[in-house]
Design goal:
alpha/beta, Rossmann fold, 316 residues, ten-stranded mixed beta sheet
Length: 316
């Protein structure tokens, strides 16, 4: 861990495990180091990154005005999969914020990275450790496959427990605003704050992972209802295509040559396995991935968000 802290202090890049996905980390106070992260990922310079902190006591360093709501939420959910967007302090580099007057911060719930943060003594700017717009990594091996030796060190913390990126909540306007759904849902956030949360359609702040096309496999991805999926599979097979299937709960009737992964009908278990499944099917030699649309319920909101963005961004 001392080696990782030394690399960060020298302006290097370290892939870090979190409970959500692996991040590509650099010293958040070092613009050159952050720009190297952007270069490795191929990430647009105006796209902000999340600064990972050791805990709630670090908030005043990064934000010039920390509202009471931020302390309430951090005390309830940190360390954990909740990112807060706050007014930035003047010391925060533009490279971190994408030139906006806000900064995104969270404390990750992974013992290795929390230990690293304490040893390093600063914030770690860390978007997901993959090429920009592609499927996020949930194991150290995913990082190595995607980025190879461009990263100075990969900390192997095992598979990510949650497997989907954090909930992002903005606390810079009259009402809290959801910028990205995640493991912590709207009802839970509203209960802590005692007020409703504005939905993404009303938000104009640029946020990490909130582009219309994101989280995408290279193989084109289609979302279909459970009823329509087997019909579409037959149609593609009749046309001489090579489809693969991402099923929900149970597998549809399929010829043996069609690759198919069945994910659990439980939202948390599904989310933990989603990105690994997309990566596996992306390497299965198929020319199209058909995925069953998840239920339209609050528990599945983050999963529907990721699959919808993946479908729009796939096949590029």
């Amino acid at each position: 861990m001392s080696l990782a802290a030394d690399i960060l202090a020298r302006g290097g890049v370290v892939a870090i495990p979190t409970e959500t996905v692996y991040g590509l980390g650099a010293d958040a106070a070092n613009p050159d180091a952050v720009r190297r992260v952007f270069a490795i990922k191929g990430r647009p310079a105006n796209h902000p990154v999340i600064v990972h902190l050791s805990g709630v006591d670090d908030l005043p360093y990064w934000s010039r005005q920390v509202p009471r709501a931020a302390y309430l939420l951090a005390e309830r959910y940190w360390p954990g999969p909740l990112t807060l967007v706050l007014e930035r302090a003047s010391r925060v580099p533009d490279a971190v914020t994408g030139g906006q007057d806000t900064v995104a911060v969270r404390a990750p719930a992974h013992p290795l990275t929390l230990d690293l943060l304490r040893r390093f003594g600063g914030g770690i700017a860390a978007p997901s450790a993959n090429r920009f717009g592609r499927v996020s990594p949930t194991t150290a091996e995913h990082v190595r496959v995607d980025l190879g030796d461009e990263v100075d060190l990969v900390l192997d913390g095992g598979p990510c427990r949650i497997g989907l990126e954090s909930t992002i909540l903005a606390l810079v306007g009259a009402r809290p605003m959801l910028l990205r759904p995640g493991d912590i849902g709207l009802e839970a956030l509203s209960a802590v704050l005692g007020e409703e949360i504005a939905l993404p359609a009303s938000v104009r702040i640029r946020a990490p992972g909130a582009l219309a096309a994101h989280y995408a496999p290279r193989t084109p991805l289609e979302l279909l209802s459970a009823e329509a999926l087997p019909v579409r599979l037959v149609q593609l097979l009749d046309d001489g295509r090579s489809p693969a299937c991402l099923a929900l709960g149970t597998a549809p009737p399929l010829p043996p040559e069609v690759p198919c992964l069945v994910l659990p009908a439980d939202a948390a278990a599904y989310g933990a396995r989603l990105y690994a499944a997309l990566r596996e099917l992306d390497g299965a030699g198929a020319d199209r991935i058909l995925a069953a649309t998840p239920p339209d319920t609050p528990a599945w909101l983050a999963i529907k968000d990721r699959l919808s963005r993946a479908a729009r961004g796939s096949g590029a």
